[in-house]
Write a structure and sequence with these properties.
This protein is of the alpha/beta class. It is built from 17 helices and 14 strands.
């Protein structure tokens, strides 16, 4: 059977589209189906966009995030005769919506049900996947299935765990993967890493250091196998473990993507982040002391945020010498507590999923207008990723920082070019 899996592109340029980093879900599912004897092709539209009029398949699987849902539905419409299956985070949160565009929808983790769905053994319109308990049972994802993807890519994604117990109000991770951590064994992860021909790796776990003992074992094996140059996502509390942090540095951690979220304590509390401003400052100092660069992630627009909060965030990032930053606009993703609250208060003014990418304001903030939030976040981005700052880093021979600053500058300028009329704000 010919199976085509598709990851739609977002309507806007973002760091993932520039780095060509595919989602792992379609690759895992494609590998499972390939191992069962099916002819599988995977298309990531940021890497290679096929001519859909010439694409032949028995089954078309489309994995959607909220920001790519509309594009995914559009693609589904191009296959009226084929069996279309839609899955991914957005479909898992709004299965009835996704079902309007597909024969079947898979909710949650699909690895244990995808074969039955693809082969017609499970004919339910909405199929509920089960959280995979033994992650070591997964095959190592076959990236060669992705058309146009270079396996020696700048940063190859690796997943070593699923789940998160923290349940931040703006995050949909727990709705997809649950609140219980599940881990691959360190030995299983190292087998995959050792088999790859990649310049660097990105551990896309929501919290790479969630289980310090397991992480230490993995890092020690990485040292032994000389696997270096990698990045990861962590919480501030990772920096409280000096032994672990030192081991991360020795094992070749280049960048830590840290969920700081806010420099406003009331906002941190409202997000249920369970960290303080001092925790953030100490984390920055601890990572930098060990020569680990920081990508600081902030979410702006909470009910306790005003214009000053946005510019305080920028000043904080510059003062603390955070290497790169992401200033996401608070986005009421379906299934999150933020969405439930804002929907109940009738403060969401747009349900255009293309806008649900962390870059567009789609709700009415409390302490400033939607336009003020949009313009001030954009202004702060422009200042941080200014061309002059990028050139200054280049002159000082800080090449990696300069490269990412230039990338940020390009993304911001492209966003301004596409969105200068801010049409979605005119309806308020």
């Amino acid at each position: 059977m010919k199976v085509v899996l598709i990851e739609p592109t977002s309507s806007e340029a973002n760091v993932y589209s520039k780095l060509h980093m595919p989602l792992l879900g379609p690759v895992y599912l494609g590998t499972i189906l390939k191992n069962r004897g099916h002819d599988v092709e995977i298309y990531n539209e940021d890497i290679y966009k096929p001519d859909y009029s010439r694409l032949k398949a028995d089954i078309v699987g489309i994995s959607i995030l909220t920001s790519t849902a509309k594009r995914g539905y559009e693609i589904a419409g191009r296959f009226p005769k084929e069996k279309v299956i839609i899955g991914g985070v957005h479909a898992s949160l709004l299965p009835d919506e996704a079902l309007q565009f597909a024969r079947q929808v898979v909710v949650g983790e699909a690895e244990e049900v995808i074969a039955d769905v693809a082969e017609g053994l499970n004919k339910e319109a909405i199929v509920y996947g089960k959280p995979l308990q033994n992650l070591d049972s997964l095959p190592h994802p076959d990236f060669s299935l992705i058309k146009g993807y270079k396996t020696s890519s700048w940063a190859m994604p690796i997943s070593t765990s699923r789940g998160c117990p923290f349940d931040c109000t703006f995050c949909s991770v727990t709705k997809m993967f649950g609140r219980k951590y599940r881990f691959r064994s360190a030995q299983n992860v190292i087998q995959e890493l050792a088999s790859r021909n990649a310049k660097s790796f990105f551990f896309c776990d929501d919290n790479f250091t969630a289980h310090p003992k397991r992480t230490r074992t993995l890092l020690e094996l990485m040292l032994k196998h000389k696997i270096r140059n990698w990045s990861c996502q962590v919480r501030c509390d990772a920096a409280k473990n000096d032994e672990l942090l030192s081991l991360m540095a020795r094992a070749g951690c280049a960048v830590a993507c840290v969920g700081f979220e806010s420099v406003n304590l009331k906002t941190l509390q409202a997000y249920q982040k369970k960290q303080t401003i001092d925790d953030i400052i100490n984390a920055i100092r601890s990572f930098h002391r060990r020569k680990i660069k920081i990508h600081g992630m902030f979410v702006l627009g909470g009910d306790n945020d005003n214009e000053n909060t946005i510019w305080d965030t920028l000043r904080f990032a510059i003062k603390q010498k955070i290497d790169t930053i992401q200033m996401a606009v608070l986005t009421p993703l379906p299934g999150t507590k933020v969405h439930e609250e804002l929907h109940a208060q009738k403060r969401i003014f747009s349900y255009d999923w293309n806008l649900y990418d962390g870059q567009h304001v789609v709700f009415k903030p409390k302490l400033l207008s939607a336009k003020q939030l949009q313009l001030n976040v954009l202004g702060a981005y422009v200042k941080f990723y200014s061309l002059s700052r990028s050139i200054s880093l280049l002159i000082r021979l800080r090449f990696r920082n300069a490269m990412f600053r230039f990338m940020g500058y390009r993304i911001v300028q492209e966003w301004i070019r596409r969105n200068h009329k801010m049409h979605w704000l005119l309806q308020i």
